[in-house]
Write a structure and sequence with these properties.
- By secondary structure, the protein is mainly beta.
- The protein contains seven helices and 43 strands.
- The strands form 13 sheets. Strands 37, 38, 40, 41 and 42 form a five-stranded antiparallel sheet that branches. Strands 1-2-6-5 form a four-stranded antiparallel sheet, with no helix packed on it.
- A hairpin with a 2-residue loop joins β19 and β20.
- The longest helix has 24 residues.
- The protein is globular and about 95 Å long.
Length: about 650
């Protein structure tokens, strides 16, 4: 038995040469060729030793082509200069440009890039190995790369190993061995020498196999990777025909481990702060945008308009986007607004230092252009009026239409009990007359005054909300007297009223979710498609959702380690992983007036098996290929029926 195992390990490299995809069943009546190309031979031969020539020629049994060679074909050790990969009839020629390293195993991993010329059937997981030394390194590791935020498989991301275990290797040196993920996020790194490694994933924007740009998506394992082999016994079945078994034997088979590595990839929050752009979309306002946030507003010094009480500031929470609404008509009528902007800027040493830029902002339409367009419209209207008068039409005297402040009230006939009435304006509000805002509830046929609270929404300069003690199946009315709101440019709202009604209790369902081994930092999200419909922190192992609309929901949970209520990415510099994410491996279908109880252990399944297929955006190549074959067969049958 020991001799058998040693023999298996000695020849196990052969298994690395061709690992074919499982055969795909043909659709009914499907005469299409679904047999992948067959590898016949090569120059040099597979697993050849002492190779000095940088040209490799592979031969197949039919005409072939390579799909997306730059994306799918990966060579280890990685090549800084891109190799030339081309097809010629039934052959593939690979020409390496980089100098070959001594005593090194080279692998050319084609993944599923090689397909036949007619039907595009792929030769799955095909790799070619040779060595410049006197031995072939045969170890391999496999795993999956997922998007840390949503567990979506990542296709085409680079996965690499570093034998240098220092943290700086990832940011200063190319990988020692590399691979690339397929449509399922799966990867296999081949030709590995015995030893200890660190594993990384990298969306290599500049193709230098080094993490040196903050916008590159990355992943890293906290633990070390030690490749090894293991012999396992498997049943090998021989068939007489498709229905009759001849013999069943138990045979040893070599496995290359680890084969279940999972890397959670993320893009770091940018830390370099700089001014991205400025704009003046209209006369009355201008905006500045920064690459990242800050803890304070920049200092703005007007150069050609008065500084005192010159504008109202509308800002994002972390001051990365800021809009200034100009108060003075004479100031914003100018074609150019000049100002000095002093802000914190990241210098070449990575330190935040003050920097001052002079800005000269021109609107998309100047005051003169606006007046010109208005005059043109006036003249056109006057000409039309003259034409109608000549025809003898009765022409009413033109009246000047009163202009009111624009207001958008978000309320309707079927309001959710968890919602409030929201009101949005198109410019900042400088005066609110609380006595002009009224709320009534309909009792029988009478409108009865209701207590309410009107307030500005958090972090919304021009957004407000009306809060009340909403009751199911009740109708309400909000009335606004004239001049209830006055905008900063002198316009006010007109008198108006809005009626709205809330849903009944029996139109909702309730979900009682019990989370096993729960932590107080767990945050559960109910997903309606891609959108987060509801979010609830786990308390004492329970997350309960009341007043749920009927529908199909998926459940996602993230470990809110810093307690800010949102998912946070990681940071390689401090070895901080992104906050862990889990998916309930199914869906919850709710109906009106039903209560649902669900138990869930988020760690019961490996994370790469959790996300339901029906909400994955990255679809498997195999499934897509089956779908295409089915479409082609349907078209063929349709054509046959016509004939």
């Amino acid at each position: 038995m020991k001799q058998t195992i040693r023999h298996l390990i000695g020849i196990a490299a052969v298994a690395l040469l061709v690992v074919a995809c499982a055969s795909i069943g043909s659709p009914d009546g499907g005469p299409y060729d679904e047999t992948p190309p067959v590898f016949l031979g090569s120059t040099p031969e597979p697993f050849a030793l002492g190779i000095k020539d940088k040209r490799v020629t592979l031969k197949f049994d039919e005409f072939i082509k390579i799909e997306k060679a730059a994306e799918k074909v990966v060579i280890s050790p990685p090549q800084i200069t891109q190799p030339i990969i081309k097809t010629s009839g039934k052959s593939i020629v690979v020409e390496l440009d980089d100098s070959l390293k001594e005593n090194t195993t080279y692998s050319i991993d084609f993944s599923d890039a090689i397909v036949d010329n007619n039907e595009g059937n792929p030769l799955g997981n095909f790799a070619f190995l040779f060595s410049t030394g006197d031995r072939i390194d045969t170890l391999a590791v496999s795993g999956t790369v997922l998007n840390a935020e949503n567990l979506e498989p990542i296709k085409g991301i680079l996965v690499g190993l570093h034998r240098d275990l220092a943290d700086s290797a990832f940011t200063t040196k190319p990988f020692d061995r590399v691979s690339r993920t397929d449509a399922d996020g799966r990867f296999t790194i081949r030709g590995i020498a015995p030893g200890t490694y660190r594993a990384y994933a990298l969306q290599d924007v500049n193709q230098n196999y080094i993490f040196d740009q903050k916008n590159e998506m990355i992943a890293f394992l906290d633990s070390l990777v030690v490749p090894y082999t293991e012999v396992r016994m498997h049943q090998d079945t021989t068939w007489i025909d498709s229905l009759t078994i001849d013999t069943i034997r138990t045979v040893p088979r070599v496995h290359y481990l680890p084969e279940d590595l999972v890397l959670a990839a993320f893009t770091e929050t940018p830390t370099q702060r700089y001014l991205v752009k400025t704009e003046r979309p209209e006369l009355k306002k201008f905006s500045v945008y920064f690459s990242t946030g800050s803890d304070s507003l920049p200092q703005l010094t007007p150069l050609n308009f008065a500084d005192e009480d010159a504008y109202i500031v509308e800002s994002s929470v972390d001051y990365d986007s800021i809009t200034y609404w100009m108060r003075d008509t004479l100031a914003y009528y100018q074609d150019t607004l000049s100002m000095a902007l002093t802000y914190l800027y990241t210098d070449t040493l990575g330190l935040l230092v003050p920097r001052t830029d002079t800005l000269n902002l021109v609107p998309k339409k100047t005051r003169a252009k606006i007046l010109q367009e208005e005059e043109k419209k006036r003249k056109e209207a006057e000409k039309e009026r003259e034409k109608r008068m000549k025809r003898g039409d009765t022409i009413p005297e033109p009246t000047k239409k009163t202009q009111f402040l624009n207001i958008k009230i978000n309320a309707g006939a079927s309001m959710d009990l968890t919602a409030n009435v929201t009101i949005d304006f198109t410019e900042p509000i400088v005066q609110i007359n609380d006595t002009a805002i009224h709320l009534f509830k309909k009792v029988d046929t009478l409108w009865v005054p209701e207590p309410h609270l009107f307030r500005q929404r958090k972090h919304a300069l021009m957004g407000y909300e009306l809060l009340g003690e909403w009751k199911p199946d009740m109708e309400y009315k909000m009335t606004l007297d004239s001049i209830a709101f006055t905008g900063m440019y002198g316009l006010h709202t007109k008198q108006q009223e809005t009626t709205f009604k809330f849903k009944t209790l029996d139109q909702y369902s309730t979900l009682f979710l019990t989370v096993a081994n729960a932590q107080s930092s767990y945050m559960v999200q109910l997903l309606d498609g891609d959108k987060v419909a509801r979010q609830q922190r786990v308390e004492k192992g329970q997350a309960d959702f009341y007043f749920l609309k009927p529908g199909t929901y998926h459940i996602r949970l993230f470990n809110d380690r810093n307690g800010n209520g949102v998912w946070d990415t990681g940071l390689y510099e401090t070895k901080l992983q992104a906050e862990e994410v889990y998916y309930f491996p199914g869906s919850i279908k709710t109906r009106e007036n039903w209560d649902y109880t669900q138990e869930w252990n988020p760690t019961a399944l490996p994370v790469d098996q959790q996300k339901p297929d029906d909400i994955k955006k990255q679809k498997s190549d195999t499934k897509e290929r089956k779908s295409k074959n089915a479409e082609r067969e349907a078209k063929k049958k349709k054509q046959q029926n016509k004939n």
